[in-house]
Amino acid sequence: MDKREIIEKTEQYVRMLLENDASGHDWWHIERVRRISVTLAKKEHADELIVEMAALLHDVADEKIAGSEEKGLSVVAEWLEQMPLSNHDKQHIIEIISSVSFKGGNGKKPHTIEGMIVQDADRLDAIGAIGIARTFMYAGSRGHLMYDPSLPYRENMTKEEYRQGRSTAINHFYEKLLKLKELMNTESAKQIAIKRHEFMERFLQQFYKEWDEQYEDVNS
Prior knowledge:
- This protein is mainly α.
- Helix content is 64%, strand content 0%.
- It is built from eleven helices and no strands.
- It has helices at residues 3-18, 27-44, 48-57, 63-66, 69-81, 87-100, 113-124, 128-141, 159-164, 169-175, 187-212.
- Helix 3 (48-57) crosses helix 6 (87-100), helix 7 (113-124) packs parallel to helix 11 (187-212) and helix 8 packs across helix 10 (169-175).
- The longest helix is centred in the C-terminal third of the chain and has 26 residues, at 187-212.
- It starts with a helix and ends in an 8-residue tail after the last helix.
- The mean pLDDT is 91.
C-alpha cells in the first residue's frame, strides 16, 4: 500500500463516519481542513503525508463526536494500526490530533510544524463566512439559542465549562472565534485569518444593528 492508497482508504473511512453529521463537523469540514492543511504544508515545507492524515482523522477523535477524547484517540489508533506507517509516524499523527482542539482556550500548542499546520487549518475553518455558518449549525444541534442579550458571554472557562455550560451562537464568537486570529501558529495562516476575522466583525456589527433596529410605521 503506497502513500496515495493510505490517504484514499482513510478518506473513505472518515467520510463514512462523518458524512451525516449535522453539527458542523461533517465530511465537508474535514475536506476543507485537509485542503487548507496541504496548502500550508507546501508553504511551510512540512511532511505532507503526516499533515494530510492528521487533518483527515482529527475529528474522529474529537470528544464532541466520539463522546470522549480517550475513546476517540483509541479509534484513531486502531485505524492507524491497519496502515503501513512507522510507529513514529503513527504516534506523531495521534499527538497532532490530541492537540488540535480549542477546548475553551485550554488546548495544547503543538510541538511540531505539522501539528501547528493542522491546528491552524482547523481554526481557519472556524472563522470567516464558513465559520459563522458552522457556529449556527453547532448551536442549533446542541439546542442553544441564536442570541440572548441577558446571557453574558463567558471568560476563563475550564474545558468542562466550555463544553457543557449554557451559551448562544453569538456568545460563541466572543468565547472562541474572535480569539483565533491571535492564536494562529504559522505566518501563512495568520495572513488568511486577518480577512476572515474582519468579516466576522462586520457580520456582528450588522447583526446587532438589525437586532436593535426600530421601524417607524410606514403609513405615518
